[in-house]
Write a structure and sequence with these properties.
- This protein is of the alpha/beta class.
- Helix content is about 30%, strand content about 25%.
- Strands 6-7-8-3-9-10-12-11 form an eight-stranded mixed β-sheet, with helices on both faces. A four-stranded antiparallel β-sheet has the order 2-1-4-5, covered by helices on one side.
- A hairpin with a 2-residue loop joins strand 1 and strand 2.
- Helix 3 packs across helix 4, helix 4 packs across helix 6 and helix 6 runs parallel beside helix 7.
């Protein structure tokens, strides 16, 4: 049996607008192993959340998956009818969104929301579902879970609500969890706790996690591999340790250079000039070329193909065939 749980191949997501077709995700490919945490990182507008939404089938018109395939445990899911895809969501794929208040209904207690979700996917009694809900809340770190389960979402703090959402995503023991910016609205100490909960759930339940964030610190703490997206395209993907210590793509180097360290005093942080291009004004060739100090003529003309560079895969014309920087 293959250890690959998720396979995304040449994924293209388009949106029809008055200005024409906008390509938000452009031929993105990656695999996810069972029990692995993969980080998707990049600036706002890089295509991280759209990629996650496409995997779980949440791209609504005028958006659509225009090309590529998504396979989950060997089954192609990107072309499934909406009803079959709805059954997969929550059962085989769990979602954790950035704002827990958008995932939790303020009119219902946490107990009702968890129990109803469990009963939807599990053939068990209501009492068993409630016991399961309390167990999940306890696992994600809700103190006095047997008492707090009957509270409403507004009675929880932001960090506790996010824990409830993680419990909600785990109700049906999914094989894959997609966490879209789950720590952005939280303070640093709570961020660390939430990351710890996700890692714990991954190891205990054998689930794989796609962690979508703009924070390389969170990626360094939680992920096994990291995929760096830029303007809807894959810039670099590889093991976290290697990408952080030896970034290959100029954009990845800029991201790493913008993070302050406690070991180097007095060094100025890297500032990447300019901003990410709009989808309506994406330049020909490499989208990062207008901001890249090492850009060549070929960068402005032709989009680079992905190449294996050591343990990473990099889309950059600066890479020689043998994997060294030109």
């Amino acid at each position: 049996m293959s250890d690959t749980l998720l396979g995304v191949k040449d994924l293209v997501v388009e949106f029809s607008t008055r200005r024409g077709i906008l390509t938000a995700v452009d031929k993105v490919s990656f695999d996810l192993e069972r029990g692995e945490v993969l980080g998707l990182v990049g600036e706002s507008g890089a295509g991280k959340s759209i990629t996650g939404s496409a995997i779980v089938g949440l791209i609504d018109p005028p958006g659509r998956i225009a090309a590529g395939t998504v396979h989950l445990a060997g089954q192609r899911i990107d072309n499934l009818p909406s009803e079959k895809m709805r059954r997969i969501r929550g059962d085989k794929i769990g979602m954790v969104f950035q704002d827990p208040l958008t995932s939790l209904n303020p009119l219902y207690t946490v107990a009702k929301q968890l129990v109803q979700t469990i009963l939807t996917h599990k053939d068990i009694s209501k009492k068993q579902a409630r016991d399961r809900a309390i167990e999940l809340l306890d696992k994600v770190g809700i103190p006095a879970a047997d008492l707090r389960i009957d509270d409403y979402p507004h009675q929880f703090s932001g960090g506790m609500r996010q824990r409830v959402v993680i419990a909600l995503a785990l109700c049906a023991d999914p094989e894959l969890i997609i966490a879209d910016e789950p720590t952005t609205a939280l303070d640093v100490s709570v961020q660390s706790q939430i990351v710890g909960v996700l890692k714990k759930m991954c190891s205990e339940h054998g689930a794989s996690v796609i962690l979508i964030t703009h924070d390389m610190g969170v990626i360094a703490e939680a992920a096994d591999r990291v995929a760096v997206l830029y303007s809807g395209r894959m810039a670099e993907i590889g093991p976290v340790r290697d990408v952080i210590k030896h970034p290959q793509h100029p954009y990845t180097k800029g991201l790493m250079g913008s993070i302050p360290t406690i070991t180097q005093e007095g060094d100025r942080l890297t500032q990447i000039p300019g901003s990410m291009p709009r989808l309506t004004d994406r330049p020909p060739g490499c989208a990062f070329a207008p901001r890249c100090e090492m850009a060549m003529d070929v960068c402005r003309q032709n989009h680079p193909e992905e190449k294996d560079v050591g343990t990473a895969r990099v889309a950059c014309h600066l890479m020689r065939k043998e994997g060294a920087v030109a």
